[in-house]
Amino acid sequence: MPGFRSLSSPLDALRPAAFGADPAGERLARIRRSPNFADGVFINPLGVSRKPSGSMLKYLPTYFGKEERARRTPAHPIPVHPTTVADLATPAASGLRLTWMGHSSVLAEIDGHRVLFDPVWSERCSPFGFAGPRRLHPVPVPLAEVGRVDAVIISHDHYDHLDMPTVRALAARGTAFVVPLGVGAHLEHWGVRPAQITELDWHESTTVGELTLTATPARHFCGRALRNVQHTLWASWVVAGPEHRIFHSGDTGYFPGFAEIGLRYGPFDATMVQVGAYSEFWPDIHMTPEEGVRAHLDLRGELMMPIHWGTFVLAPHPWADPAELSVAAAREAGTRCAVPRPGQPFEPATGLAPDRWWAPAGTAPAPAPAPPEPIAV
Length: 377
Prior knowledge:
Layout: H1 10-13, H2 25-33, E1 37-38, E2 41-42, H3 56-64, H4 66-71, H5 85-89, E3 96-102, E4 105-110, E5 113-117, E6 151-153, H6 164-171, E7 176-180, H7 184-189, E8 197-200, E9 205-208, E10 211-216, E11 236-240, E12 245-248, H8 257-265, E13 270-274, H9 289-298, E14 303-307, H10 321-333, E15 336-337, E16 345-346
Parallel strand pairs: 5-6, 6-7, 7-8, 12-13, 13-14, 14-15
Antiparallel strand pairs: 1-2, 3-4, 3-16, 4-5, 9-10, 10-11, 11-12
Helix pairs in contact: 8-9, 9-10
């Protein structure tokens, strides 16, 4: 969440830089003018309850119990696709190629442009290098080998979507950032030049080359520091080129607005839909795999790629369930679903051959953690 106003006290001076900054000045004035901002906070298109709906005493054993921890962890190393610089340098034959880098990070090559969604290359999604959820698999491709990036799109400011070291590495190249309202305050605090930042409200658009990037509604919340003032917006995203259209859900609970997005901006050649980190304790802010497939159908998507799973342990469900259940729900619904290995480029036009690569990993007691890998720039 936004939190940094000024170094006016000794406590402020101790704040980690990763906490980011509060919107201020004209940025804050623009937020207050937003139709999605009321009573001092951003509001959802449909009300949510962000606290566990059951007793905390009931929830904690599901997360910290020994058997429950084992179910959330793969028994064997997750197979990472050996993507090379040449793989990513060769143009997509169809004009659209997606490479899932893990969790919600996706490189989309669309109509001659390259867009990177929610890039997180750090070992942990946390403001601290010594604590917080740690990767279950290595970063598939060093950031320096990703190649040209025309725009970075951020869905919201949670640590598993907005990673300060990755942002700084990309900003040093002069990359453009397109983000929801208020998120630019974090980026500027980390040294990104204002000229590199475009902030959008829901249903606002900007162009990058021949692409139109549009922020669309989502059902979630924001937050990075100890307070949780809702002064930065969360969004899903539509990217439309001359020949192709894609959708990235960010984090969201299911809501009827997906059908509106589909009618207004679809149909989509591919949807990247959040299907992981769900729980009965927070049903309004993250979708189950079945809800993800329902959202994909509402959006009028041709092919669905499940995201927000497999890289960090953020919820009580078994590690492989998001993939397994998404494939089953898509099959039942009669729609196409592709679950690539981390780092595996594929073209939605042709899809992927059936490959339950996640199944051999299974679940078992957590192995000893691998040594942290620094961000490669």
